[in-house]
Amino acid sequence: MKAVVLALAAIAVSAIAMAESPVRMRQMNPVAPLSGKKAPGNDLCMACLNFYDQSINILLNIVLQEGVIGSCGKICGALANKTHSPTLGSLCNIFCDIAGVEEFIKIIETLDLDPFYFCELLSPKVCPINDNGDATITSFVPNPASGPQGTTFEFDMMYTSVNGTGTGEVSLEIKTVDGIPLGASDYNPAAKPGQYGGKWQVKAAPDPSCDPTQEECENWLPGTYQVDVYLCYGECGSKHPHSAIYSQASLNFTVTN
User: Quick one: which of 7, 43, 193, 209 is 20 to 30 A from 166 by CA?
Assistant: First the structure.
């Protein structure tokens, strides 16, 4: 699925906090928290999810090449050297110390990992687990419902939770007229019971930075576009423990001539 540039904002209804920032999203990749439930700057879970995305394949190669590794310092030092990133090396030491070096290596070698499951295996203290959590989308609407090419469409979602939510993500998929799928995912921190909301914006105009010789480029042809949103515990679509689709909803908007 091709990435789409979205301007993202969200609110926690009880707090009425709102922020907007242009973010280039990648499919199923937790890049930024919903703004109204914004994770604090020291959010260990968000740091872990991004660490996984940048490091897991390199760590697996280190484990396979090195064989027996006796300390967190050795494996994390190798990661820092290979990536030329002291920051990744430091994060590696934090997460390795939390799990213990033997368990850390065992987790790295686990087949079919996803970032949420990886971080949960390290410790529930890294990414909070709530297997009794719930959430129900109560509203998902476009604004405006139609407009010419170049219009910025906003998608507004509201949801409620009775038991609170575990760590997860919100995934947005746009089914386009020309068949080029667009999508984005946002990290959604664990939350207490309450009512929450999110806003996404997308400009229905060709991306001038898209090179058609390198990838398919969305042209935003006139017609009806379907947007599906998935509110998930863990990674959307994951079959691992501590994963589920809490709720999903759809809307349509129209690009006119």
Answer: 7
Model confidence pLDDT, tens digit, residues 166-203: 999 999 999 999 999 899 999 999 999 999 998 899 99
Q: Find residue 5's DSSP bridge partners.
A: 24
pTM assigned to the model: 0.83
Q: What is the pLDDT of residues 38-70, one digit of tens each?
A: 555 459 999 999 999 999 999 999 999 987 688
DSSP 144-166: SSEEETT-EEEEEEEEEESS-B-
Peptide bond into 189 cis (omega under 30): no
Kindly tell me the burial class for residue 253, based on how many C-beta atoms sit within 10 Å of its own C-beta (0-12, 13-18, 19 or more).
buried
